[in-house]
Amino acid sequence: xxxxxxxxxxxxxxxxxxxxxxxxxxxxxxxxxxxxxxxxxxxxxxxxxxxxxxxxxxxxxxxxxxxxxxxxxxxxxxxxxxxxxxxxxxxxxxxxxxxxxxxxxxxxxxxxxxxxxxxxxxxxxxxxxxxxxxxxxxxxxxxxxxxxxxxxxxxxxxxxxxxxxxxxxxxxxxxxxxxxxxxxxxxxxxxxxxxxxxxxxxxxxxxxxxxxxxxxxxxxxxxxxxxxxxxxxxxxxxxxxxxxxxxxxxxxxxxxxxxxxxxxxxxxxxxxxxxxxxxxxxxxxxxxxxxxxxxxxxxxxxxxxxxxxxxxxxxxxx
Length: 318
What we know:
With 318 residues, the chain is an alpha/beta fold.
């Protein structure tokens, strides 16, 4: 037993000595950083306010919608303003601000954010409509609200985007990374998304910070809307690095569309696995021709990839 305690003491000392290195990972300021668990709880309460009749508020016994929303709002206001007051110090403008200034600014930003909730609900309603109209596997809209990862990722992104526009540091990215870990869909909070946005299946989707997405856009799993190159590092900050997707565009699975000057015109259809680094005109149909399939079976003939009636524009099916 004493030998074990001695070993633990030795490892503890080694770690404490290692913490003295002055590196980023050595910083010990537990109360100067946002709390991810609290932010996830805030997302949950915001979701209840977005869909007041779908997700129960188990924390309170309430009897009217008004009372329920008031309690949720009060909870979000308290928690979010506290988290914002913490992260404001990451903004050079508030780096040396006193606590009172931080609290007042955080409360102001929180109320501005809360005033965007009706707008977010307006957009989410169109996203649900797009999912229902665009997916024959959806039996009803309730199924979409409860079970579609794409809708959850879009919801969190729309919430985080409003905080991003208000200049709130760090918190928007933590929110979208939570949705990323939950759904496999990686949407930067800086990305702009129009109404009627539908993500089908969704796993592996990446949408970069300066991406602009129009209305009635449908995106399938594995799609990347990314930067052409990031070798410039921090020198590329705030520059348009990701593509613009105009209205009524469909992008099928595995496609990559890269570059800040790349524009996919309205009504275009991008086939699966396409790799695009230049603009696509409106109404275009982009496809990757089927590769020849050869099968080496001793007792069976090779499968002919060009089956009768097969169309090279195979990307219309998924």
